[in-house]
Fold this sequence. Notes:
Elements: H1 6-16, E1 29-35, E2 40-48, H2 49-65, H3 69-74, H4 77-87, E3 97-102, H5 109-112, E4 124-130, E5 135-140, E6 158-163, E7 165-167, E8 173-175, H6 181-184, E9 190-192, E10 197-201
Parallel strand pairs: 2-10, 5-9
Antiparallel strand pairs: 1-2, 1-3, 4-5, 4-6, 7-8
Helix pairs in contact: 2-4
Amino acid sequence: MTPLPIEEIIKFLKTNIQPLTDVIYGNGYRASVTLTDGLHLPCVLFRNTSKIIDLAIKRFDEEQSGKSIFSKSSGLGYREIVKTFVTSGNCLNYYDIAKVDKSDFAFPEQTLRQIRGETKMGWTGFVAKMKDGKQFSFGTSFLFDFFEMPKGYSPNDIIEIINHSYLDKDGNLKSYHVPEVYKEFDKSLVYREKPYFECYLDNL
């Protein structure tokens, strides 16, 4: 398959995808892509390169100058920060992309805005009500960009978010904020966040 010109990638994203605002990393455009070898990646987050470059430079400067608490505590802060920026995460080259589409796993921004805060330490749980009245449990440790979806449903089918709640094995709506949650909650019934790739574009 032929690589899609970067101008066409940017045009599709700006025309078809509502970006999520992020003051630290910059606007994120959530999409799916097909690579030149035919591999389909259902969850890809596109960003402009500027914010991540500025953040990396800032963190490198802080470590080298000794202003960071990490360098003071171990002396290895600079090396660890460099490691974080250059060896972690799933990064995709734009020139390997042959096609860009909307993602079937990205909640609309108006839906994400309904999700209110952390439910338990390190966990945000909620129930999503669909257009047909059915409900499903969702949860994440800290990532909200993409979620698994029940078969036959898309994020656009969600009409209501019921915060800090889950469904027990019988489909009953339950609150996380009661003692019995530790006996009744079953994580296998929860649709979780999905892993994704990042792709950085200079002119996005």
